[in-house]
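Changelog-adjacent note: as of this version, every example in the card shows the full chain rather than a window. The one below runs 260 residues end to end.
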Amino acid sequence: MSRPSISAFFPAYNDGGTIASMVLSALRTLRTLTDDYEVIVVNDGSVDYTAEMLEELARLFPDHVKVVTHTRNRGYGGALRSGFAHCTKELIFYTDGDAQYDVRELVKLYEALTPDVDMVNGWKIQRHDPFHRKVIGAIYNQTIKLLFGLKYKDIDCDFRLIRRHVFDKVYLESNSGVICLEMMKKIQEAGFKVAEVPVHHYHRVYGVSQFFNFRRIFNVAKGVLRLWWKLVIKKELNSVPAERLGVRAMLEPDAVGRSE
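Full-length structure tokens:
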């Protein structure tokens, strides 16, 4: 049997200290799973040496590594949408570029992707973060599951393997971190089957989290409430024309066909 092709991508913001190891680990893992694969990194306006690392990786692996550059920071949702839009293979895997997840555990997701499963969602066995982040993360996870009627164990575990056809029905609009909530709600309501697999989570070894400060938490709270009003109260789950569905539709209009 032929093995499905796979796109793996990483949103990266100031991840110069970890992104090279992530890409190399992805290349090694992907070649064990398929003969047709690509690794994409979305450099979302980094101001450290992420760009230099990516330039070298693309030079060393021109057939398999692609770099998408945002000249300004678009936010986590913007980086994810850009990553999805540039993927060309049958399966799409993504995780963050900060190395808090082990790319090699993609194998576990792949094994759980049986023919009747549309997406495999990781859930953190144990969260290795400072205590305040664990508390905030637990409150966030339980609150949004209650507000949005979500049935999954872990909404904010960014370690996912998704069949490309999912995005023929699911269109993502968020540019902030609430994009994961938007995605999981729309996937659930579209009736796609989701398998869940435990994965390990590790301490951050480079850089500083962009999420856990009061301004961002306040903005996320506003974004959650807006999504709740739109998706739960108004039930506007896909308020876009059919021709705008599919992964390419998630590119910003002026960025289609090129890296910004």
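Structural remarks: The helical segments are 19-33, 50-60, 76-86, 106-112, 131-148, 179-189, 214-233.
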